[in-house]
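Plasmid partitioning protein RepA (Neptunicoccus cionae), 393 aa
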Amino acid sequence: MFQTAPIEAASQSELTSQMAARLHTALTTHLQQAYAPDQRKNLRLFSATETADLLGVTGQFLRKCHSDGSLPEPEVIKNGRRFYSGDEILQARHFLEASSRKPGKYLPGRREGDKLQVIQLMNFKGGSAKSTSAIHLCHYLALSGYRVLAIDLDPQGSLTGFCGIQTELEFEGASIYDALRYDDPVPMSEAVVETYFPGLHLAPARLVLSEFETETAVNAGRGVAFFEKLSLAIQSVESDYDVVVIDSPPALGFLTLTGLYAATSVIVPMTPSMLDLASTQQFVEMTSAYLGVIEDTGVKLDHDFFSFLITRDDPSDIPSQQIVSLMRALFQDRVVGATGLRSTAIGDASMLKMSIYEVARSEMTRSTYDRAKNSMDAVGSEIAGMLQKAWGR
Ligand SMILES: Nc1ncnc2c1ncn2[C@@H]1O[C@H](COP(=O)(O)OP(=O)(O)O)[C@@H](O)[C@H]1O
Ligand SMILES: [Mg+2]
């Protein structure tokens, strides 16, 4: 049971320490209930219709592939209906790609000579849906057959939590901090873990990552430039991935900047409100100043795309739509055409640290689920198109 009695504390540090302990208990209990019995997340199974949709084939074609033996049957068949695991869908992609006339139809990732794509989501406004957009993009791309590495640059570890590592519960293993730290860093390959989501790996974050800010200030001018650190770490594992998705802290500090240097593309998620517009203006202005400092060292930064993404969009809210229109007028195709719709389905899923892709349609009101999923699909598909364009396709 939770302690609910008023807190008696002799000092402010004791007061806050007790508050932290209570929150810790509440969180641990919540997580244990959500992920009982072993507290690990698992990916649900996908129906045959969903699987055919994901693969871009018809249900009839999928059945034919099973009957002619070109595709192994999924393990789970209930009442004659097939259900596919994420791994089975990925295997199907490999089978289908091998016999496809159009290369990249089922495995759309990098080909010989294509550079790794590194997308950073950043905005110093907390709550602009950076982490929510990041996990949906990761899941969309992984389900589409890309090999994805998620890097959590936020010490608060939201993306890490979405990927099934509960920083509140587990403290073992290396994290991105260990690959970036100044004393005795570990190779990036040791900071990366597989997740329960096929096709998605993660460099997790812990609270200690915030030390990077102070350590960078202390170590200024020694060794490699701080902004090169993440880029070098990524280079050491680059052949394993098609796309890297970086989530950033709600601050424009050294962590965000090392991400910005590593990034080949930038997405600035933004909620369409007047306050967010003003804060985004300040953010972009500060970004320009910091990029100038990096460029003054003789580095040429080149991003394939640098675009805004409207998040928590509510088409029925007129004032917010005026801001969306203003953004589109000012920046045209630098605003992603699709928007992340505000939806209780997304909010509810995130309470369980899930993306909409992890929730089965039958668990929600269908229309609410479809609206949320269609919107996340539209954003994901447009960004995938931008990646393909960057690869010259
Ligand atoms: N499309 C959406 N619909 C409803 N709620 C959303 C949506 N996107 C984000 N949220 C909610 O907004 C809050 C902030 O999102 P988050 O991704 O954590 O922002 P950030 O990482 O920028 O701080 C979270 O509670 C999240 O569940
Ligand atoms: Mg976040």
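Residues 126-132, 158, 250, 311-312, 340-343, 346-347, 350 surround adenosine-5'-diphosphate (ligand 1) (CB under 6 Å). The beta strands are 46-47, 76-78, 81-84, 117-121, 148-152, 193-194, 200-203, 243-247, 265-270, 305-310. ok done for today
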